[in-house]
Design brief:
alpha+beta; 7 helices; 10 strands; 217 residues; 38% helix; globular
Length: 217
């Protein structure tokens, strides 16, 4: 047995077993919608109302600046990351999970040599292999301060803040595998200082919990 139901000028057909379930879900959805709709005189937009109810709604900034993307494997991800590093003039902050990429290490050292203030914080447990230790040694021996962080099960951040205005983010680990083997993405937002400041604040909180890397050779 089926049912025919008219809602807002649309005729909907249901099997008997489906009708009650669908109507319950429809009523619940409408109740939520009307609860969040702005009242007369002005109330928060439904999306803002939802955000205001979140424990940690995050940071909202105005959209501005050019956005650039790249992908892996062999889709320009590592090249775009290096482009960001090469663009730095005064200050660069990097947060990483896996850190083994020779190209990125070289770009960071080159930035340091041209006078950029470079600092790096990486996951402690994810960087115990020979390649990671070698990469971190190269940084420290080039007078680039580096720290490992073990305060979290995984420090999975992967981002760069360049000159307090540009942010590179995405799934891309700073590793050879991310560039050559894995399916990854890189997103760069150029010249957006409010966005950069939010990432800098997060970076600083992780740096403060880290332990200085000491060269092993």
């Amino acid at each position: 047995m089926g049912y025919c139901y008219e809602w807002m000028g649309v005729f909907l057909f249901f099997l008997g077993s489906d009708f009650e379930m669908v109507m319950k879900r429809l009523c619940a959805s409408l109740l939520l919608l009307f609860t969040l709709l702005p009242a007369h005189g002005g109330s928060p937009h439904p999306i803002n109302a939802l955000a205001s109810g979140m424990k940690n709604p995050g940071v909202k900034v105005q959209g501005q600046g050019v956005i650039e993307t790249a992908f892996s494997p062999n889709g320009g991800s590592e090249e775009l990351v290096v482009k960001v590093i090469d663009s730095s003039e005064k200050r660069l902050r990097l947060a990483a999970y896996s850190f083994t990429s020779p190209a990125i290490v070289s770009a960071l050292i080159a930035a340091k040599r041209r006078g950029v203030d470079v600092q790096v914080v990486v996951d402690e447990k994810g960087n115990k292999g020979k390649a990671s230790i070698a990469a971190l040694n190269l940084l420290v021996n080039s007078n680039i301060p580096a720290r490992t962080i073990s305060a979290y099960p995984i420090h999975h951040d992967k981002f760069i803040v360049c000159d307090d205005r540009t942010v590179q983010n995405g799934s891309f680990n700073y590793s050879r595998a991310a560039a050559k083997s894995n399916s990854e993405n890189v997103l760069v937002v150029w010249n957006n200082s409010p966005l950069a400041n939010s990432f800098l604040s997060h970076w600083q909180s992780r740096w403060d919990k880290g332990t200085d890397v000491r060269s092993t050779y």
